[in-house]
Amino acid sequence: MNFRLFLLTIFMVSGAYLFYSCSTVKTASTSKKALVIYPSPPDTARIQYLTSFSSSLDFSTKQSKFNKSVFGEDKPKVISKPFGIETHKGKLYICDIDVGGLEVIDFEKNSFDYFIPGGKGELKLPLNCFIDEDDFLYVADGNRRQIVIFNAEREYVSAFGQEGDYKPTDVFVYDNKIWVTNIRNNKIDVYEKAPPNKLLYSFPDLGEGEEGALFQPTNIFINDNKVYVTDFGDFKIKKYTHKGEYLSSVGSYGRNIGQFVRPKGIAVDRDSNLYVVDTGFENTQIFNEAGQLLMFFGGTYQGPGGMYLPAGIAIDYDDLNYFQKYVDSDYLLKYLIFITNQYGPDKVSVYGAIELK
């Protein structure tokens, strides 16, 4: 694929190279709404902004006049300050650090609900979450300093975390293990999935300043080949084997294409392309498996498609039908990309990876 013209779209500002989202807006052939695509022509569009949502009003049916007169007007449930995001079996789970819980959106039922547990399962600062194949929910809580676990019925099961030098920021379940980013010891802590969740090992076992050492690990993604970690303190995404051996890194500090200012959420698609959300640039950059920049999308919020302090990302191959109505008629939808915005009118923005028919 040819992204050369797109990658050259940078602007000189105050003597330094700053980069922004390179998109085009035109009237969509299927509706009156503006079509926002990335990158701009003449390059082939790869990403289309589809829609966004910020409250239960984006999903619920309109309340009838009779219902309103009898029960009063329904108060909408809002997404306040979303951070981490995860998709699983037709549902979207949004960690909201303002409400002390999660928003759960069911696409099949077109429903929007809060999950705000109490008692032993009370959440204080839910940063990121993961849902495993048994539908168990794992929440990394930065203020509880624990991983809090709920079963498929969303009943509290247990919580774990080492006392003292421990502050989890993200969690991932893979190969019957629970992988946790810990910004207190700057390592990835790996636990047994089965209770009592015994600590198995931590990595990387490297000294400060050594290549591959972590300075502030905040986000994690795992596939069959690698462990990807956002090192917020080193402005890089670092790759490791499943045993914790350092492989390579992507990015560096700077304001040019392919660099990072405040990297946060990460995801990897089925083609091993890496997606990195940058809160500072307010965009998402895409790299191939070799670490070469392919493109970016989003940019400082100026309207639909823009981002406003983005934090989390999730890639979804299963819920295409729900969003098919937003796709321009010239394109085929391959998969979905959800991005959380901590501020602004579009708390969750939905993009589609597209290709020409």
Automatic annotation (TrEMBL):
The keyword Transcription regulation does not apply. One of its GO terms (molecular function) is zinc ion binding. SUPFAM superfamilies: Calcium-dependent phosphotriesterase. Keywords: Repeat. This is NHL repeat domain protein. It comes from hydrothermal vent metagenome.
